[in-house]
Amino acid sequence: MRRYLLIAGVVVAFLANSGLSMAQDDPFVGTWQLNVGKSHFDPGPPPKSQTRTWEPSGKVTVKGINADGTPHTHHYTIKPDGKPYPAAGAPTPPIADTVRTKRIDANTLLATLSGGGTPIETARFSLSKDGKVLTLESRNSNLNPRHFHNIQVWDRM
User: Fold this and answer.
1) Which site from 88, 99, 107, 112 is most exposed, i.e. has the minimal number of CB atoms within 10 Å?
2) What is the DSSP code string of 21-40?
3) Cα distances (Å, whole numbers) of residue 17 to 7, 12, 113, 132, 155
4) Predicted structure pTM score
């Protein structure tokens, strides 16, 4: 009986550790703070602050204070399989309701955000080799009349 309990314990420990290592395999997972001074917003003004939390499930939550001082939260799901996932709370119109993502390499993701089935934004997430800096370059698509080109620099917390 002890032998069976030992084997069961080893299996449970292995499964728990494999789940943790799978989550740790995604270098984007973690909490990130926007470095407003190193970022560029066209058009501005930049937000006063933002924190981005990237969960192992792919859920990304962004909380911050807009340039006018109002708090803001939005979220979306990043899964690099090319399928659309929900997005909610985008800060400016047109509003994105889905995001599709594909992995370019281990440290780069390319996302297309859409609203009502129309692509409105492209975003490139690039992680530094040391994993401490996330650069997010986003711009409007040709189908989005609102021009923007933002380069956001995020520091790992």
Assistant:
1) 88
2) HHHHT-TT-EEEEE-GGG-E
3) 15, 9, 34, 24, 27
4) 0.81
- Residue 10 — very low, low, confident or very high, per pLDDT cuts 50/70/90? very low
CB neighbourhood size of 17 (10 A): 10
Q: Is the dihedral of CA 93, 98, 104, 108 positive or negative?
A: positive
User: What count of other Cβ atoms lies within 10 Å of the Cβ of residue 6?
Assistant: 10
Angle in degrees, CA 150, 152, 156, rounded to 5? 165
Domain 28-156 has CATH 2.130.10.10: no
The four Cα atoms 86, 89, 92, 93 give a dihedral, to 10 degrees, of 50
94 contacts 115 by C-beta, under 8 angstroms? yes
Task: Please state whether the peptide bond connecting residue 94 to the residue before it is cis, i.e. omega within 30 degrees of 0.
Answer: yes
